[in-house]
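How it folds:
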Amino acid sequence: MATKKTKNEFARADELVLNLGKAILEDANIKSREWASLALVVQLDGGRNMFGYVFGHDGSAEAEVPEESNVIDLAGQLRDEMAKTDEPWKAMLFQASGDLLRLSFDHHGSEWAMNADNIEEVIEKLRLDADDDDSEDVSAPVAAPKKKPAPKKPAAKKVVAKKKPSAKKVVAKKKPAAKKKVAPKKK
């Protein structure tokens, strides 16, 4: 039964992931090589071991692991921390290429198990595939490009209906009746 993770549990798991990445990427063996991507498998099922490959820009794959490090111990601590809320995993795949870091977890321990019959197949599984959805991307989040704001429309002019000036009533004044000149009466 899964329980909610507290802020401290997330912080501890994040800290372990960062320390794990640093232990691998800062290792003298790994830093001394030119590589386009690398993959490292840490197996904690039964025995504790690790194996990995660096992949060249030409697609070549060469076996490589950190020389002297605490990678296996850090992976064990990460598994223990994650097991507080989920089934413990048996193997972890760490992949890196440029700024991309990816961790994948195998709860059964067979996903990256290598034997004499499947070496080439496993090496290809380890090769970083940016389209793989079965892993957790732990690289720094990339901010989505900001949308340009829509151009502002000119503010609509308020049309206020003006009252038409009322028509002036022109009242025709009657002209005063012309005075008739009364002709004198003839006598």
